[in-house]
Amino acid sequence: MKGFNTRSIHGGEEEKVKDAVTMPIFQTSNFLADDAKYASERSETFYTRVGNPTIGVLERKLASLFAGTGGVFFSSGMGAITTIFHSFLKHGDNIVVSKNVYGGTQNLLRELPDEGVEVRRFDQSDYGSITGLLDGRTKIVYVESMVNPNLILTDIEAVKAKISSSDALLVVDNTFLSPYNFRPLEFGADIDVQSLTKYINGHSDVVAGFAGFKDPEVESKVRRKMVQFGTNGAPFDAFLVNRGVKTLGPRMEIHNRNALAVANYLKDKPEVLRVSYPGLGHVPACYENCPGFGGVVYFEMRDRETAKRFMRSCSIFQEATSLAGVESLVTVPSLTSHASLKESELAEVGISPGGVRLSAGIEDIQDLIEDIKWAIKECVR
Fold first, then answer.
1. Residues 284-322: tens digit of each pLDDT
2. What pLDDT was estimated at residue 174?
3. Residue 173 catalytic?
4. What Rg, from alpha-carbon coordinates, does the chain have?
5. Residue 269 catalytic?
6. Strand 94-98 to 274-276 pairing
7. Which of 190, 203, 224, 225 has a CA-to-CA distance to 359 between 20 and 30 Å?
8. Is-catalytic flag, 102?
């Protein structure tokens, strides 16, 4: 199977269970055991923290969509990131990270020095600075392909080129683009980690995460740590994600179109100080063939109070902290995803207190534009 949509539907499900068209839920913690299962590190019919048939189908499907050799299903995106970090970082090591990453990841990074791990930062406007941060104890270089929330694109090929002489793993959070729009493993990443809560499940009814791998040995190391930490996902969540991902391609096409239309509408509004959306301008070469850039649009208003009035004047865009579901959402990042950052830290990563993050769903674009038009009118009265 070659096509993305075909693999989204049929991938991992080649062997049918009891002739069921759809993979059923194996909602069980235990399976009958034998000597072969005792010896296996990844049996899908031994104990669900180790593996489960429903989870295994999803892992194989997503590994294919991520362009990986394998993958691991987690209880959340942060569970995936935490497990990956602790699989490779130990006392005396260091991790090199771009300055602007998700607030939850920032919180995790703040705790690493207490474990004896040094966190070294680089600015995405200067990839050349990465080289000077690397040494023999650098185990991970961590970036987001599209930064939350201001949508700066990281040149994955440029980062890989700077670390090619190092043994460090390149870990990319690709949540904001999804594997439909971009696959970091095809451009030099070693691990592609994503929150399945967002586009891949797409229906705002699951919290889960996934990591796709280029190297089976790297996957095995992370899988062992997942089993040790108990950050495995649940069979019912795997069933829901397996259902949701089957429509990922068609949904992403609408997300891509709607967000681009919203960004083009906002950029001409005098009440809007700045709009950020990759589809409006030049992109690094590794993104030139992307079919789109997802449903998130970031823009800035004059201050936080104006941003809050805009948010609370919307009717179709609902005030909520997450994103990338079929329904349109709106939030002020300085109140949610980046609430832990001081104003000086917000400025350092390019986020304004008046910044607004829209997640354009798959509703009719005319309705979304009318909603935004009304909210702008209301918030500047």
1. 999 999 999 999 999 999 999 999 999 999 999 999 989
2. 98
3. yes
4. 21
5. no
6. unpaired
7. 190
8. yes
